Amino acid sequence: MTTIAPATSVDLPSSERTAAAPVAVPWFLWAVAFASTSVMVGIIWDISWHRTIGRDTFWTPAHLAIYLGGAVAGLSCGWLVLQTTFGGSVRDRAAGVSFWGFRGPLGAWVCIWGSLAMITSGPLDDWWHNAYGLDVKILSPPHAVLAAGILSIQIGAMLMALAQQNNARRGDRGSELPFVYAGGVFIVMLATLVTQEIAFANAQHGNTFFIVSGVMFPIVLVGLARAARGPWGATTAAGVYMGVTMIMIWILQLFPAQPMLAPILRQVDRMVPPPFPLLLVVAGLVIDLVIRRLPADARWVRQSATAVGAGLAGLVLFGIVQWYFAEFLLSPAARNVFFAADQWDYNSRPGAWQYEFRTAPATWGGLGLAAAITAGSSLGGLVWGNWMRRVRR
Q: Which residues have C-beta within 8 Å of that of residue 265, sequence separation ≥ 6?
């Protein structure tokens, strides 16, 4: 059974849009928003724990935050499925997706699967450490199962918010907010995945930074700009990503901690925060400004040209701004609580490298490859965004 239906694109007159009441957010959207946020807060906290303390157990607060998010997502979506199946109206059941005789929103099923994967990974990870010791690489088999579960919860939250947005009346104020918030938390997850490759200022002048940015971010930002009903979908989502990351930076520095696993190569007395977030709000703003001018009845050729132009323009401006911002982050002016620069893992040897770029500056060949990748990623974002505009279940 298909999970999509044609999306309407007829706007109400401005007077009717102004008079429309704000959309009430259903309880299950609050629940999955909390769950997806709790998972990512726990992930950032756990990375900080390993960078600061090193040694941990299954019962650390960071792990509890991760699995709390998984449990909340699974229980709330499970209850929603039961409620829809046995207590929902004919319309509610018809709008759901059937699985083993039960009916519920598509996003709820994705969240339930993600929750089961996360809960399975917990005892599996504990057994793995008891059998093989500390992980040599981050993607051990238990962590791969956990990562798949986390990804499913983030996607499920977006799908549930999409159905709410797309089924709301045109002109309902705020119908897109749960969706763009879920999109922002999704960007937090993507940025966390590439922390070592591009998030530290030392890496933000090289070819790899621009190539990885071109792969990861245009597809998401263009997709969000295309799918969100409001005019600032990509900008708002990028702002959510920056806001969540900055709050974690400021909070983690408040807690005293010390290393407990050799080798200890530098003195650390506070939780090491994540690096300052990428200025993706710049790219989001440019992409929104371009995508919002696309007519609802535009043909595929115009849609494609607009998406590629938006992605390239957004990433070019983002790259320029981030280039100079990276230089600032390596300067003494950024070594404070707000920007949290020059804070490193306890097992990283102090040296002049902390204040230098660790890669050669980007080359024209590398930038050309990044531009080609950005164009392809932007087209992928257009396809994804057009699909999301039709999600109804």
A: 346, 347, 348, 349, 350
